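Recall from the previous lesson that a structure prediction takes nothing but the amino acid sequence as input. Here we apply that procedure to Putative competence-damage inducible protein from Halobacillus litoralis. The sequence below is the only information supplied.
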Amino acid sequence: MKTEIIAVGTELLLGQISNTNAQWISKEMAGIGLPVLRHTVVGDNFNRLQTTFEHAQSRSEVIIVTGGLGPTEDDLTREAAQKVMQQELVNHEETLAKIQSYYDRNHRKMTPNNRKQSLVFSKADVLTNREGMAPGQLIEKDGCLWIFLPGVPSEMKTLMQDEVIPRLHKIYNLKSQIVSEMMRFIGIGESTLETELQDIITNQTNPTIAPLASEGEVGLRLTATGETTEDAYHKIALLKEKILQEVGSYYYGSDTVTIEERVRDLLKEHKYTIGSAESFTGGSFIERLVALPGASAVCQGGLVAYTAETKEKVIQVPKFLIKQYGTISHECAEIMALNTQSLLDVDVSISFTGVAGPEPSEGRHPGTVFIGIQIGEQDPEVHLFNFNGGRDQVRNRAVKKGYELLFHRLKNDF
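The prediction returns the following tokens.
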């Protein structure tokens, strides 16, 4: 089934609001076995709307339209769709009575344009809108099912769940279910991950595998179809097991889990506390940790020391060490981690020192970063990185790398 979504509203094109409706509908449709093949956003313009609807009629079998059903002059969805529907627009008396009752209860006079919200196509299957005024509509036209829904998310979601999805199950006798899982990996690049899984990716059928790269990590979206949800999840579980056998050491979690959450959980499992010493990252590392629920069980706090003088006074970095090696050095990162462990009385400490740019500092080019880690009485370790990008990118990549290093150290310590 070729399914598409058309979102109506100039505010979407101007970026004033995000098209969250299409995202939500796509997920729901995939879950019942009708994956969406196309998203379209069109402004409140009669001619462009009409052309968009005509194209949709020619290429798709299920078309979901959101927005443009309100009372104002720029709500043009119904009028623009008339050429395709070839049906008269009539007032839905039940809806009109509901609108009038609303104004009566609030002792207000209903303006004439509010009658527009009750307009429906003469042969439509009208869907009662319990959350708002304008009803939804289902219309069959030359083998294509049109679904018109309000753009207000709460109204759209209620109509989809209560009215549209049950009807789709009945109309198309839907039996297949589609589910997906996003596996998340850190410490391995996208190209390397694909190379390691080449045989699995080449032979994929059901489930399918889609690699997705993001800042500092890689994801694999596994999507499976089954006669039941349980059947589809079982297929994903079998494929996931094969993937973990190949690259499981880089896997930290699935779906919405973040690397920060994973590190927090590992600290809890070890019964470790953590503290940080940050220079150019300005407290970003510890801020991400304390933003998580349950952070107080593992986080003691963080020290931010941007200048050499503050590093001496706050983190007690010896003056001779700074004079000999500089603040952007292996030696400085190491002593920052060591001293922070004792100053904050923590089991784990991590330090960041470097130059984010745009200008070089202490003879180091922008992107030069040292990250120090101290765990218990183990020997401290310091890692040197050379990150590309602007100032904010370097800072963000350094913080992400810090979480990556901690994840692998803490995971391997069990």
